[in-house]
């Protein structure tokens, strides 16, 4: 009987200390939060983006419809980001692991923002097409590609800054 009691104490110790001094219960709840966020993602896309689509259909321009088309995937990532943030917050991490998780969440937020900006260049490029009376079509195409590259570069530089890599002196 004593051996069973010792075994049970060992199970409790493993459950409470879990992985990297975080209880297994907290880890499972955090995973549940992320899974719930993934499930809410589809609902978010249908409700919120659907509402935006209905609003955009009431306007006379096509730019807002095209913008919603290219923003749908980055916007669908928002519930997952919220779930990841809540899961990390629930875990109550400390030390280097907390710093890593914070940087990871911040990096993902930056990636989604710049992903959306980069995607918006295409529908907004119709506004730049009006410059074709002053510039050639290939110059406008080059400008659009340059804007996309600059946005990718700024997004990558921002992520590197989050991780403590000073990009300013390199530029």
Q: Could you outline the blueprint of secondary structure elements for this entry?
A:
Elements: H1 2-17, H2 24-57, H3 63-76, H4 78-91, H5 95-128, H6 137-162
Describe the structure.
By secondary structure, this protein is mostly helical. Helix content is 81%, strand content 0%. The protein contains six helices and no strands.
User: How far is the N terminus from the C terminus?
Assistant: 69 Å
Number of helices: 6
Mean pLDDT metric: 88
Overall geometric form: elongated
Keywords for this entry:
0% strand, 81% helix, 171 residues, mainly alpha, elongated, 6 helices
Summarize the structure.
This protein has 171 residues and is mostly helical.
